[in-house]
Amino acid sequence: MPTTMTPRSSLILCALSLAGLGNAFAAPTVTRLTPPSELFTSNRPDPVIARFLPGQRFDLQATLRPDAGKRFTEARFFIDGKPVAAPVALRDCASGCLKGVPEESAIATVRAVSVETAGRHQFSVVATQDDAQTVTARGDFMVVPFSAAMGPKVKNIIILLGDGMGAAQRTAARIVKGGYAQGKVIEPLAMDTFPATALVKTASLNSVVTDSAPGMTSYVSGNKNNNNEEGVFPDDTTDAFDNPRIEYLSEYLHRTQGKALGIVTTADVFDATPAGNAVHTSNRGAGTGIVDQFFDDRERTGLTVLMGGGRKWFLPASTPGSERAESNDYAFSATEAHTAEIVKRWGAAPGAKDKDRDLIRAFESAGYRYAATKTDLDASAGADRLLGLFAYSNMNVALDKIDGRRGAKRGLTGSVVDDYGLPDQPLLEEMTTRALDVLKKQKKGFVLMVEGASIDKQAHNMDTERWMLDTIEFDRAIKVAQDFARDNGYTLVIVTADHECSGAALIGGSMVTDATLRNLALAKGAANLRDKVVGVYEKAGFPHYRLAADGYPEATDIDYRLLVGYGANADRYEDWRTNATPLRDSQQPFVKKEPLKWYPANPAERADAIGEFLVTGQVPGESAVHTATDIPLSAFGPGALAFTGVIDNTDVFFKLAQAAVKGTTAPADANGSTKPRKR
Ligand SMILES: [Zn+2]
How many angstroms is it from 382 CA to the middle of ligand 1? Predict the structure, then answer.
């Protein structure tokens, strides 16, 4: 006898049948319904979880659990009671393609649906078992309307994302770069001159503490993802590339307006933040598939500029330094509707397991200029499309790039960038300048994401001076973007972070000179390195760093320096002095060879250990971790004044889209940058 049940009633009947009332009351169940909703999860209508723009595409999916020995023969989806007019792929997955659910479960999916009408919508799935029993479940989502425009439509969007950049990281960069006189900043950071600021809530779908994957995608998809997931909702399959998708800002604005996409990072380009603008995967570590998808789907995302590190993913597997592997590549089956519909409905490339692919050559053949060094980048003026891969994995940090440049000027070698074999890497500000040169030729405008990646990576390592200088490097890139917006007009610029990292706190200033600090390290212990050094309150004074002509501090080991503590730290030794080298970066392909193999593997192996001042941590492992603390966001240009208050990270997406699609919701902005500046 066919029955229709909610998940809750199904559970009750299951319990009754277990109590011995007979199998006649057993019932199939829906164990997951996507997009995620509280209506499905707890039967509460609020809050609405998934939100979309009018017309923004997303997938519907249900995980169905049949009765023992039964299977599903059909599944249908409805939105507001009307059947969804798209094919449903019903995947029977008895062959080990599921994780965390019974292997007799089935996955029903509809790809690339969209709703134009604003407001709350209910959706449901109805699935039929081979004994004609049916099961149904319902969820809801919101389509967020555009507001009436009060100001101009924005042509370009620049998202500057300081990975791991909380208020402490911003403040530290301001103190080091700007200096203070009698309690006031002498030279503000570029980001401190933006007229609007909001506080952003950063939780992901499955944790108060996000990682960079959902941290980025919340801004450019409007939705929460699980940690490690990019542009997709969670599912129950093992395939990292088949998850229910959400259309990105880049895809939406390319499809509807022809805008181009630029991605610039100091990380490996496969990393979560860059990938979280254009690639759909539940595994942020699937490097080969991620970089392939950047290229394969370039006509859907408008990818025009891609710059950072990560050459190891672009080299054929036989080339030294390559880490291309079929185990982390993607390929959609043409016969399995579950994935074939991604190709058909989304227009995505089918992919291929092709570890021997020469992806740099593929980019070049498609009209991208390739730059492997700063010299190449300087020579790329006039390029219409640009691929820059300046390192095998993550690029070196600003402190080491600057040290290498200054040494080279004096004829010295042996710096960290020489150890990496990459002495000619650009700074983020130089990459940003060139990215804007290329993108400003795009008549329909662009979305550019620029990431200061190692603010986070060096905060994980509790390497204070390295993240401080990377925050300064990031601010110099912000200045480039701000100047572009001022000069070209119709450009909305936001500076934000995906999350805070390390619980950094500016605890005071050193009470001693650097020479004394070295002696106190030799004298060892907390009684020397803490009690005789750490000046709190008025004893902190105002640390005074001097900037060199290149814009970075002449020296970081100054007398009476700024001191930073960590609230989300692992055990570490502290001597308050700049570490001679960064920690060993396990993502570098040549990390096990000379000379990188001599770099310290963790904070406990650093020279700081000589001082025997052990700072015990509260978190397990060797690294500091991300925190759940809100982060500041600053905005400049038309639409900037929409970014105020305490907002959710997903709100940012709708504000950006509003400005690009309908126009800004504020009549004019404090900096008057709605129009090009007259020169
Ligand atoms: Zn991180």
Answer: 35
